[in-house]
Amino acid sequence: MNHDAPEGPAPAEPGGPARHAGGAGYNELVLERALPFRCLCTAHGLPFYGLTHIGYFPEDDKIAASCDILGLVEHLCRTPRTQQSLTRELAHAVSDLLHPTGAGVLIRAEHSCMPLGGPVVITQTWLGTLREAMSARREFLRLVYVRQNLGMACPSPNDEDDGS
Q1: Over the stretch 116-130, which tens digit does the pLDDT of each residue have?
Q2: Percent of all residues in the chain with a pLDDT value above 90, rounded to a whole number
Q3: Taking a C-beta distance cutoff of 8 angstroms, is the pair 74, 112 a contact?
Q4: Which residues of 21-38 are buried (b: 16+ CB within 10 A; e: fewer)?
Q5: Which long-range contacts (CB under 8 A, 24 or more apart) does 65-71 make?
Q6: N or C, where is the chain less crowded by C-beta within 10 Å?
């Protein structure tokens, strides 16, 4: 993890106030999906931006509040870095904070150095269960790409079968 501390407050430390919600024995995949970000790239000095998806398998009832995960993304994006290092550092930060049995990060980003309509860059880092068990990684990816896009993960009331 990059040890150059960016300006501004850091996300809460493990065990600190409002850091963990009680998971009541929950040990299934928790996925924070489609978190927007913008970060300055060290390679070209131009921003890259997109969506990050962060998942983990909690242990010891350590489930982070969604705002803390988003705060972690924002915190790391304050310092210029490459998309690859952002992906890796986010996965390790989640692992360091929550000590889950597995953590994974997938980032889908567009880079300002690319011409309009250029390719989207996708990076991923898998730790623990998400690295070792293909079924866990498949579940992560299925939840990320539900509906074949990055739209709503949960059906809206209009999507329900009306019986016709």
Answers
A1: 767 799 999 999 999
A2: 62
A3: no
A4: eebeeeeebbbbbebebe
A5: 65/18, 65/19, 65/20, 65/21, 66/32, 68/11, 68/12, 68/18, 68/19, 69/32, 69/35, 69/94, 70/32, 70/35, 71/11, 71/12
A6: C
